[in-house]
Q: What sequence folds into this?
């Protein structure tokens, strides 16, 4: 097994991008990297096209989600534009039987793990508690509480060790979450118990309106070695580098090496959520600089330089992206608002006396409106 050189704490500021591991530059140029290259030797032009297709579909799903929220069909949406390479590249390194714990922005992770169209919108529409059954795609439902999913991932990974199997758990969180006690406590437990878990920190430069430089003067990946966890700082807009780094991290965890940490340096092109206005705290020139590092554009440029990006392929990707967009929209607009009493369904796997009491009390409360509803219908006639 090729061992990755781990990142050591450095005096370089957190904003320095020169020390980031990458395989494809912003201009689409393929860059050799001694440690990353061995992990993607199997990725040929066809493999690159598959990664590009994944990212394009994810971007289309994301755009549809934003549009649906702006049209009043969703209560909220957390855009992921610009972060497709981090999400797709890392998620493609997992096996189907591994278990992933995402935050609320990992649209690409959920897509790669096998989510269907309705899984992306029903929770944001308020029609379902958790949108999907986690065991259908071995992915926990999106976590809103910042950093809490890292503890869940470590607990699951400790269970893997006790079971004596070789699955791996993955935890996704943002740069802002690294300031939370949960994340640090999770790394303490992961290191102490040798848990097979990979921490993926998506450093998108902004924790809502707070820049990463306020909470981290030096690279976030430099914190993990302090917990005894090997880490790597990678270009989060380079899908090939993200895949390579994650394959290393997953293999490290799967073969008994314990936890690993990846800092994927990327950028949130849109708002934190659709309730946010990033123009109030971000410089337009900064956004434009990152736009020139677009993860899809650089893969397209690489494929075109190798004469592997045809008009036919572009049409196929556009058609598939449009199909996904249409399916997401249909799933949203055709969603059935369940009767209020069904809020108690699917809370526990087994009957629960306390919940049944609450259900009966709520049913009695709803029955109190029955006369009013009948009167309203009569007056309408």
A:
């Amino acid at each position: 097994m090729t061992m990755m050189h781990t990142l050591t704490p450095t005096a370089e500021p957190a904003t320095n991008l020169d020390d980031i591991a990458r395989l494809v530059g912003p201009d689409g140029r393929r860059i050799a990297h001694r440690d990353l290259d061995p992990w993607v030797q199997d990725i040929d032009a066809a493999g690159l096209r598959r990664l590009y297709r994944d990212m394009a579909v994810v971007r289309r799903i994301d755009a549809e989600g934003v549009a649906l929220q702006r049209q009043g069909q969703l209560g909220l949406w957390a855009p992921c534009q610009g972060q497709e390479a981090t999400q797709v590249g890392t998620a493609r390194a997992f096996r189907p039987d591994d278990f992933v714990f995402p935050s609320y922005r990992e649209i690409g992770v959920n897509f790669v793990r096998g989510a269907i169209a309705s899984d992306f919108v029903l929770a944001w529409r308020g029609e379902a508690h958790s949108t999907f059954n986690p065991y259908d795609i071995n992915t926990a439902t999106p976590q809103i509480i910042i950093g809490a999913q890292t503890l869940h991932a470590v607990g699951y990974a400790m269970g893997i060790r006790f079971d004596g199997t070789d699955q791996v758990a993955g935890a996704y969180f943002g740069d802002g979450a690294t300031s939370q006690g949960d994340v640090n406590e999770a790394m303490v437990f992961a290191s102490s118990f040798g848990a097979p878990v990979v921490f993926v920190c998506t450093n998108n430069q902004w924790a809502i309106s707070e820049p990463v430089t306020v909470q981290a003067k030096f690279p976030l990946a430099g914190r993990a070695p302090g917990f005894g966890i090997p880490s790597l700082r990678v270009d989060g807009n380079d899908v090939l580098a993200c895949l390579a780094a994650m394959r290393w991290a997953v293999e490290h965890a799967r073969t008994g090496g314990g936890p690993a940490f990846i800092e994927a340096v990327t950028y949130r092109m849109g708002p934190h959520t659709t309730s946010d206005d990033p123009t109030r705290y971000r410089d337009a020139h900064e956004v434009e600089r990152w736009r020139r590092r677009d993860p899809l554009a650089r893969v397209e440029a690489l494929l075109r330089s190798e004469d592997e990006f045809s008009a036919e392929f572009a049409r196929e990707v556009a058609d598939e992206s449009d199909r996904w967009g249409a399916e997401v929209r249909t799933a949203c607009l055709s969603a059935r608002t369940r009767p209020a009493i069904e809020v108690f369904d699917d809370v526990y796997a087994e009957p629960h006396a306390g919940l049944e009491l609450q259900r009966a009390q709520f049913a009695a409360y709803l029955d109190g409106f029955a006369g009013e509803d009948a009167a309203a219908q009569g007056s309408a006639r």
About this structure: The longest strand covers residues 197-203. The mean pLDDT is 93.
